[in-house]
Amino acid sequence: MEKTWRWFGKNDKITLAMLKQIGVEGIVTALHDVPLGEVWTREKIRDLKEYIESYGMRWSVVESLPVTETIKYGGPDRDQQIEVYKESLANLGKEGIHCVCYNFMPVLDWARTDLLHDNPNGASNLYFNWAEFAYFDIHILKREGAAEEWKAIVEGNGSNASKALQGRDLMAEVEAIRAKADAQYDRELVENIVIKTQGFVSGNFKEGDEKPVELFRELLALYKGVTKDDLRNNMKTWLEAIMPICDEYDIDMCVHPDDPPFPILGLPRIVNCEEDIQWFLDAVPNEHNGLTFCAGSLSAGGHNDLTPLAEKFHERTHFVHLRSCYIFPNGDFTEASHLGGRANLIELARIFEKEEQRRMQTRKPSTQKLPMRVDHGMTMLGDEDKGYNAGYSFLGRMFGLAQVQGIIATVDNELGIKYTQPGFFG
Ligand code: DNO
Ligand code: MN
């Protein structure tokens, strides 16, 4: 696999020169300054690409070229937005970029309730607390029917969320939170769930948004009546529309799984388990329609067994996120060490290293490499003061990357593949 790193552009305090020192080979980034729904021009793409190349690395993956809400819920300007997307894709292809990550999660991209949860080692990790999330839904968002939905989940409606929460008196916990919550607590929760995580990934919310909760409600309203089947059909329509461009320019599309891997806030979610993955791959059977194998997002759901998933889907995986989650007995989850948790990254690295060998034999040079990044990392040793996006610390991610580099070198040794560590004389 190619060792890559998510970098947020020229203003990122973590510079390309720093990344070069820690063995990063390829960059994962986006044109973060282009507003949602506008075309990415060749000039802007080329400018960033050349800047990355001037540091001896390549722009390996676009994460993300965002799919606007209208394409997801099937709004009136959907066709126009699909055209915009196609134009951006063609421009990327013309500039020699061949891998694009996106997600099909309505409204909310990835979600956590606590961004600095204490780890036993004194560092911190991202954390998802179901009771806090339910409190946010019922009492801050005040979503219609939310309390009834949560009750049905807790009472056992057969869903994966219901299984995750088995035996937990979630409604009592929500009440306990409500009894102690004040305006500041609510504000912090909104910051964590909506602003600090969403701000830089979905483009829907921005730092400084005055009324994020109101904006949230407006976005949720767009999905009124949109079912899981509707969302699936909209994804299929969109994929079919863009595949000719992907064929022409040899672009791999890779959808990021839902995080957490459950439907939330009454919204349908369609990429969070084996059956979902199989569905979208079969719906559009073109090898350019592929998956971002995010071991972290998938392992946050007890229903997902990661090694068999990788064994099943490696040929349609075009981008890998190697991190792992730990699920507490009550169903909450946090990000584990890259050497622990539910995802066995050693086994996954073995599968994907073999997959890269296969790609060397079967694909054109432009899409032979299989890019991998460690995704999130701990916040540690003063990362807090360095200016970073939630989960995207410098030292914490570097620690994870070093561990994963060791795993890959070991696996390569077993497989008889020559491992190279960039940046050294030998
Ligand atoms: C979560 C992370 C996310 C991801 C976006 C993609 O696992 O990888 O930041 O990049 O959800 O849209
Ligand atoms: Mn991920």
Automatic annotation (TrEMBL):
What is the gene called? uxuA
Keywords for this entry?
A: Lyase
What Enzyme Commission number does this protein have? 4.2.1.8
Q: Does the keyword Lyase apply?
A: yes
Task: Give the enzyme class.
Answer: lyase
The protein here is known as: Mannonate dehydratase
